[in-house]
């Protein structure tokens, strides 16, 4: 029974018959085995052991995520460690990793990765400061948007502009889509911010994502 409560790291990959050089280095440095797990085995892993931490190579994340779409990695049962990250990630990308416990860049040393993984096994988080700052900013925005009443008297035009904000459109792009001037867009945005009790586009977008249907 004890093994059911032991936190272990498993490497999620497309083909577990292929060894991953970086994972092998992490195993040697930590002095533990990191079993390989394929997407098809993920549901079985969910049933058998609810304390597995999934390690994922960021280079293969998109392909893996498409294979486990019916079992989202956002499932809180699975904690995740992302390795081999080559660039700065957007907040949406970070959130897609689900219960993210650790993130390591390509330039991180094996010693630092192994140390971080040991801390994660012991229940700690190991995230870069920039990632923590992004998440903190996101959740602050969510909290602020939740304090806004869901029932707001928005015009049809304002709703269309909010939907454009959700896609990341600029003022000029919104003006082109709505066949209005940029000055008019700014005027509409001012009214939207006022009605939603928000201060900027990010907060307005967060409100729209929560309250407007796609």
From TrEMBL:
Q: Where is the HTH luxR-type domain?
A: 147-212
Gene Ontology molecular functions = DNA binding
Cleaved signal peptide residues: none
Q: Which UniProt keywords apply?
A: DNA-binding, Transcription, Transcription regulation
Q: Which GO terms describe its biological process?
A: regulation of DNA-templated transcription
Record flagged with keyword DNA-binding = yes
- The domain of life for this entry's organism is Bacteria
| Pfam families noted in UniProt | GerE, VpsT-like_REC
Q: Which InterPro entries does the annotation name?
A: CsgD-like_REC (IPR049151), Sig_transdc_resp-reg_C-effctor (IPR016032), Tscrpt_reg_LuxR_C (IPR000792), WH-like_DNA-bd_sf (IPR036388)
Q: PANTHER family annotated for this entry?
A: DNA-BINDING TRANSCRIPTIONAL ACTIVATOR DEVR_DOSR
The protein in question is named: LuxR family transcriptional regulator
- Please give the organism: Vibrio hepatarius
């Amino acid at each position: 029974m004890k093994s059911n409560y032991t936190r272990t790291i498993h490497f999620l990959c497309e083909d577990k018959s292929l060894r991953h050089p970086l994972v092998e280095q992490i195993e040697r440095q930590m002095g533990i085995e990191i079993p390989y797990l394929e997407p098809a085995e993920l549901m079985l892993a969910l049933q058998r052991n609810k304390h597995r931490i999934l390690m994922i190579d960021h280079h293969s994340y998109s392909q893996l995520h498409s294979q486990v779409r019916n079992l989202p990695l956002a499932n809180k049962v699975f904690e995740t460690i992302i390795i081999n990250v080559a660039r700065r990630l957007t907040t949406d990308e970070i959130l897609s990793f689900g219960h993210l416990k650790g993130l390591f860049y390509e330039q991180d040393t094996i010693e630092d990765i192994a140390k971080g993984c040991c801390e994660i096994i012991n229940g700690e988080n190991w995230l870069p400061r920039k990632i923590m700052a992004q998440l903190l900013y996101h959740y602050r925005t969510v909290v602020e948007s939740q304090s806004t009443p869901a029932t707001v008297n928005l015009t049809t035009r304002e709703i269309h502009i909010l939907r454009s904000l959700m896609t990341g459109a600029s003022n000029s792009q919104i003006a082109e889509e709505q066949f209005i001037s940029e000055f008019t867009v700014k005027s509409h945005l001012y009214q939207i911010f006022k009605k939603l009790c928000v201060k900027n586009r990010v907060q307005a977008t967060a409100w729209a994502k929560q309250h407007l249907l796609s």
